[in-house]
Amino acid sequence: MKAVIYARVSSTTDRQNTERQIADLTKYAEYKEMEILKVFEEKVSGAKKNSERPIFVEAINFCKAQKVDMLLVSELSRLGRNAFEVLETVKQLVDEGINLYMQKEQFTLLNEEGKPSMFAPVMIATLSTCAQLERDNIKFRLNSGRQLYIEKGGKLGRKEGSTKSKEEKAEEYKQVIKELKRGTSIRKTAKLCDVSVSTVQRVKAEFNL
Questions:
Q1: Which of the two ends of the chain, N or C, has the fewest CB atoms closer than 10 A to its terminal CB?
Q2: Contact 205/173 with Cβ under 8 angstroms?
Q3: Residue 72 is inside which H or E element, if any?
Q4: Domains, in order of start, for the chain
């Protein structure tokens, strides 16, 4: 059985990493005697649209092209926190006959006959809606806290002079820019330049590469 691991964290800094997700899912794959064809890692908010998550899109397309049997994720929210986006992704997987394993929920999308289990649609819809509500609640609390901070005289934003100019960024990431202009993929550029995938994504977007 062929499998792919997709691991994601929301923070683009080194505060979070995907190591634990990958390690746990690898153990599961080995236990189930699955062949892991590829591991996809991404640092991007789950609130982003699929089109704004290039590694995720690459992972789904890889699964389709390689006729992968199983996509492994640590939990359903790794597919996103927008309920409609998650359901759209799940539908793509079902249409392609690709199973989905969610470690946290201990749940697989398809049964032994390759069809969604009886409770799969309800469970997926419920879990994805809960994930979106959780994100909305966090966003509300953060905005409320910022507003209170401002009302008390606080100021938001970076300190003056702490933001790098575009010219400074161009110099710092000149090798990244060079590779992207050559048409090198995001993941390969990250490895060649010894930077994170999220850094390459930011440079690509900022310099319209």
A1: N
A2: no
A3: strand 70-73
A4: 2-128 (3.40.50.1390), 166-206 (no CATH)
As a dihedral over the C-alpha atoms of residue 142, residue 146, residue 85, residue 109, rounded to 10 degrees, the angle is: -10
How far, in Å, CA of 99 to CA of 59, rounded? Answer: 14
**Nearest alpha-carbon partner for 7 in 80, 77, 74:** 74
Q: Note the pLDDT tens digit of each residue in 55-79.
A: 999 999 999 999 999 999 998 888 8
> Which one, of 17, 16, 62, lies nearest residue 39 by Cα?
62
Comparing CA positions, the residue from 69, 7, 5 lying closest to residue 39 is 5
d(Cα 165, Cα 69) in Å, to the nearest integer? 46
Radius of gyration of the chain from Cα atoms?
Answer: 19
> Distance between CA 99 and CA 116 in Å, rounded?
9
Strand partners, 4: 38, 71
